[in-house]
Structure formats: C-alpha cells, structure tokens
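Help!! Second protein's tokens look totally different from the first
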Amino acid sequence: MAAILKIKHGLRIVALAGLTALAGAAVGQAYDDDLKIPDNPTIYGTGDPYLHKATAIVNGEIITATDIDQRLALVKASNGGQIPAEEMQRLRLQILRNLIDEDLQIQEAKANEITIAKEEVDQTFNRVARNFKREPKDFEAYLKTQGSSAQSMRRQIEAELAWNRLLRRRVQPFVNVGEDEVRQVIKRLEEAKGTQEFRIGEIFLSATPATSEQVLANANRIMDQLRQGGSFAAYARQYSEASTAAVGGDLGWVRAAQLPSELAQILPQMQPGSISAPTAVPGGFSIIALVDQRQVLGADPRNAILNVKQITINFPANATEASAKPKVDAFKASLDTLSGCGKVEELAQSIGAEVQQNDSLSARELPPQLQQLLLNLDIGRSTPPFGSLKDGVRALVLCGRDDPQNAGAPSFDQIYQQMEDERVNLRARRYLRDLRRDAVIDYR
C-alpha cells in the first residue's frame, strides 16, 4: 500500500510501504544480528539528507538551500576562500536575490518562447573551463572539490543567455541612437583630446535616508574585504545594484566629467589598482576601482612593445635573507657593469644565472612598479634586482622598444554600439525591476 508524504513546499514523494515492509521482513533479523540496531532508536539531528528544503519559491519554481550553498562556493573559490564568517550570511542573502533574478529571467524568456538549448549552455561552459585552463570534465571535478557543481554554473549560464536573447528581441529593437548623437560624441572626443580617461569598476548600493547608515556600514565591510584581496568583479556581481553588475562592475573607459561630481573629485587622487572608500552619490553609495588611466586620443607610453631579456638567480630552499644578501649584492654590482644586451648571456654564465627572452612584451602587462622603471630605461640597461628568494631574484634588461602611435578616435560604429548598449542596459534594469514587482515569491 502506498503511503504519501506531503512536503511543506507542495511536492509529493510516494513511498511503496508494502514493498518496504516485505523487504524488511526478509532481512531484518540479519541486521539485528550483525549491527545490533535497537528496536526503538533515538534519532539525533533533524532533516533528511536527501531532502532539498525550499528557501524560496519563485512563481512556482523552487530555490533550495543547496542551490545557495553551491553558488556561494563559486564565489568563495573566486575570492580564494577569503570570505570572513561575518560576511557569509549577508552574502547568502545576496546570492538568494541573484538566484531569484535568474529564475525570473528564465521564466520571462520562456513566456516569450525563448529557450536555450543544452548545446549552447555546454559551449559556454566549455569556454569557461578553458579560461580556467581545464578540460570540461576536469572542470566539473574541480567545481565539486570547491563544494559547488557544474549544474549550478550551467544554471547561471542559461539565465544569462536567455536574458540576453530576450533583451535582443524585446528591448534592443526599440532603443534608438541618432546619428547626430554619435557625431556629437566624436566631436567631444576631439575637443577632449589629451585629457585623462579612466577605466573604472563600480559597486553601487542603493540607499534611502532611512537605510543610509545601514547601507554605508555594509559598503565599508565590502571595501575592507576588497582591500584584503577579495575579487572586485565577484563582489560587484553579487552586491552591486547597477546594471554593470552582470559584467563584474566594469564601466569601461570614462572621463571624469561623465561621472557624478562626487566620484570625479576623488579620481585624480587615485592610482591604477586602487579602490576608493564608499562615496555618497545620488541614490546611494559607490565604491570604485581605478583599473587604468590614459589620455583621450593620445599615445599611452604603456602600450609600448618591449624586447627584454630576463636574468634570474636562484637560491636553495633553506636560504635566508642574510645568507642570500652577498649573492644579491654581487648580482646588482654585475648589472651595473653591463654594457648592452649582447653581453647578457656572458654575464649570466659568469654568475650562474638563467636567461629568458621576450621580444613582444607590452609594458602595460607588467606590474605598475616595473612599468615606469622600464619605460625610463636606456636601451641596453637593466632594472634593479627584484623578486624573492623562493621564486628567484631577477632583473630585466631592455633590448629594444617600439613606442605607440597616437590613438585615433573610435569609429562611428564603435560609439554607436556603446551608446546602444548603455541604453539597453538601463531598460534591462527597469525590466527586471518590474518582473520582481509582479512576481509571486514565497520565502521559506
């Protein structure tokens, strides 16, 4: 006889009680003899390990605690596991909101007869795996070791693909960018030639006068985590309420005048790679990361292509700073006597060093502290020694440099595309806001 177990969220599981009883009668005595299981055991702990309890139901679609745990594991992995315990609950709530949005996006796409084929999801998943320098199967195993799953990532991929396709059908055709608008942008670029332009990342948290204090405290906690090495893109995806959250907060290249005056004032004081304190802006607070900066339509010296040779001296595993100092000092002294790139191999052989050559190194790819050193070097000269005892102490010798030419203005089509994307993103944000407003969401 079948017994029906009714679960809180409405699902039904049918257990074949009669069959179970029959099987138990056949083997019960063996269990008693071998395992000594008591007839009336006390169960310590609650919950069925195979029951995925609903955390929220979005228009009938269930989001479980397991869904949240697996997505949280992805965020932790992208941050090197450096998420303090006090941040975990807030992050779980944000992930739940993201999962709700994903359900709404997939549901709205299906309502408009848009479905994403499994093959499309697999193609994107495989590209992500390659970005991690892994084969898809190896990547699935890696995700499991992190406490996540390929299914969780595929769900996120499906939502992004479905939403983008929906926007192309329902939003993009109704976004207009006039030719005159594009020409005005080109004209302003020409007028701004030589001025500074900034590559910005943003995390925007909305606030009202009533919630301002609480939101600022949360923004400060996020900033602290970022300055301790947290991934800006990961935090932007999970916390930012701006339309750029989907691309890790990337605002692209902007001039200070295009930003709120509160942010424009702090940009000149920042260095590439730095992160601002939370700053009050209209509607909330912003944390910005200065990724890079350049001159509008100007030649950026960091785009120079360098021909370098690297000389490296290595140390035994038990070396200390004190024991290594004489060798490092001798290395520095020998670099001071170097008379051109042609002598690098000879010098390296005399001190037992290794040599590697790169004839197409972009200065921009180097750490900021090395960029200026190399750009100010004369051909044939070397940088001071740098590195560590563990990885080796090294120096770069400049053998040649191809300086960049002045950058031309972006093309008409490039500017048109950027303006269209910005307007689509703005409407997409409103679209999702309306879906949230009309959804039936049952939190458990």
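Here's the second one for comparison:
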Amino acid sequence: MNTRTLVKNLAALPDGPVTVSGWVETVRDQKKVQFVILRDESGAVQLVNPATREVEEGADAEASARLATTEAISALAHGSFITVTGELKHDERVKLGGLEVKIASLEIVTAANPETPIAADSSLDKRMDWRFLDLRHPKQALIFRIQTTFLHALRGVWIEKGLIEIQTPKLMASASESRAELFEVEYFENKAYLAQSPQFFKQMAQAAGFGGVFEVGPAFRADPSFTSRHATEFTSIDTEISWIDSHEDVMALHEELMVAGFQAVVDKHGAEIAELFGIELAVPSRPFPRIPLAEAKQIVADRGYVIPRTDDDMDPEGERQISAYVKEAFGHDFVFLVDYASSIRPFYHMRHEGDPSLTNSYDLIYNGVEISTGAQREHRIDVLVEQARDKGMDPEELEFYLDFFRYGVPPHGGFGMGLARVLMLMLEEHSIRETTYLFRGPTRLLP
C-alpha cells in the first residue's frame, strides 16, 4: 500500500516518519549537509541530509547507505522524480513552511536529463514547446486548479437549477452557423466539418423538452488570427434555457454563474493568486451594467475614439474604451452590451418587437475584452425561415435545424463563452496560450 503523504498535508502531522514523493526543484549540496526542495502537485518541502562524504573500509551497511544517499543527492538533476522516507520535524526556523524532512532513504524513481530545455526567461513559444515542463511551475499549475474550481462552481449552479449536461457531436454534416472559419475533414467517402459551436444541438434540446442544458466542450474555428485571444481549438462554455421572456433572463443566469465562479475561486485560491499573480481578485457585484450598443459607441466617441468599423459592431479598442468607462462610472469589470443590430447577428437571434433592425442579444465584456455572446433565439418557424432568407441562406440547407421548430419549441435563449479567455482576463495574463492546457493555433499542432 502506498503510504505517500502530500506536501500540503505535512503541516497537520506530528513529528515522525513520513514518505513523500515528487520532483526535485533545487539541490544545495554543501560540504556537511545537503538540502533538496521537493515539489509535488500540492506544494514544496525542504528535505535535509547530513552529508556522508566517505566511509572507512569495512564500514557497516548503514554507513555505506548514508554515503550512497549523499552521492545520489549530489548527482540529482532538476526535475528528477524521487520518493523519500524520513523524519518529519516542525521547525519555525525553516523558511519553507516551517518544517523539513530528514532523509532516511531516497529512491530515484526517474532521473531527469541534467540540461533543462527551458528557463524562467524562455519565450512563450519555447515554453509551449516544452509545455509539460512549463506546467511544473506553481504559477502555471495554479491556473488549472483555478479552472477546476471555476467550472465546478458553474456546474453547481446549473445542477441546482435542474439543467442537464449534454455532450454534443463535434463532427457535423454541415456548418453549425456559417461556412466561414470552418474546418473540413474527410469522413469516409464524404466530407464533414468540425463544429464551431454546439448552437444547433443545444437548441435541439429545447425542442426535446429538456428545459435547460449546459456543455463544457471543444469548439473549432478555422481562424488564421495570431492575436493573444484567438485559438483554432478552444473550450466553450455553453448553456441554453427554455421559457424565457427575453434575453434579460439569459443575462441574469450568466451573472449568477460568473458570480458563483468568481466567489469559489476567491474563496479557495485568493491568497495564492495574490502571491503568484500579484492580483487581489474580487467577486463582481450584481447586476452587471447594461449599455445599448449605440449608446456605448457614443460614449467611446466622446472619449476620443471613433470606431472605424462600418458593420455596426464594436472593435477591440472600442471594447477597451467602454470597459474603462464602466470601471470609472460603475467600478465594475463587467458590462453587457445589448441591442446589437440584426445585420451583424446570426439569423436565429430574435429581433426586437417593433424594430427588426435590433436583436434581443448581448456581448459580455470583461476587462476590455468580449468573452461571450448571448441571445434570445427565434422560436417561430415562419419568422426563422424569413430571417434565414434575409441573410441570403437557403432554408433547404437548414432543414435538419428547421425541423426542430416544426414540432413545437418553447421560447428559449442561451450563450457561449470561451473558458481560456475568461481565465486570461481573470489572472491578467497576456495570452490565452498561458491559460490553455495545450494551445492550438494556425502554426501549432504540437505538443
């Protein structure tokens, strides 16, 4: 039976025998004593060994073993995985955690090459080449503990509300939303496409009477962008709910999810985030500010920046400017931009009652970057068909989707949100490469 103790659990134990396992972070090989910093998935601890440099001929087995341990420690390379059994001692003079383990026996489980391919000052691309080594750093590992906590909190909200978790297919017979930014793959004698989003399938769940669904899964965009916030494969957080009155119901759920996620992260990791990222992460207050897009564009113009786009949308600098305004005016890191023009929204977004030029939709902006799009969907088949035609789409190519609405579907809506982008902004990182376990972009398919 494995008697290994995690480093984080050592402090609660009395002085006495313990076994710890992990990888070697540093070795200080002094003449009379050796120190090893061992790190495992939960933390780091100091190991100490009174050095035995030589033994007399005919020395007993214990002395020979001490010499062998000393020589093994002297030869340890950074990153080697070891198991150590020894005596735990609490000592407030020890800077690292106020305790140490005096080595009785040491087993080298796997030895690392002595030359490490990356260093603290290595470029981001170089670190991505050696991602498994990069992730050994406590700061990098913390990102994915935060991700786990964040998603667990979101699931708690969804499940408490009775939503059903679904896993939608990622191989599609046709485009899920548009034929732009679509990966085409061979599929036996035919062609298939990698799903850009679970949009159609999560709407199908509303027609199935599920009432509400969520999914955390991969999505694919054949987007050649090399920006800090784009990827060709990313994890999408999606939800869809029935029986809504408007997109306000979707925004209310979105707020609840974000607050729950941030609260869980602050409660569990706030101190570590402050230590490793230098950030005092705060839980956003509800309600989040809401600003119609036309008003937001005017606010941005009044701040001295005129959005050059002609497609009625906000551009990245506009998003940064409106976020700066919201921070100044409301002290808030989030803002919902609402009332987007139907000209730039998908055909399935419901349009305003009495003003078909606007949609019941929103973008959620966080710290100057759009992280999500949400909307009330059009559930009336005749209106949906007409809106598809308005977009220049052939309803016959959408038959499998339109069939959902021919047999009854309740008013519904939802959103999709990029996980890595949320984490990037939460932790004030400069790229989603940092907050993606293994990044995929136009020029990266490895590791």
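Reply: Different proteins will give different token patterns, so don't panic. The CA atoms of residues 142 and 272 lie 8 Å apart.
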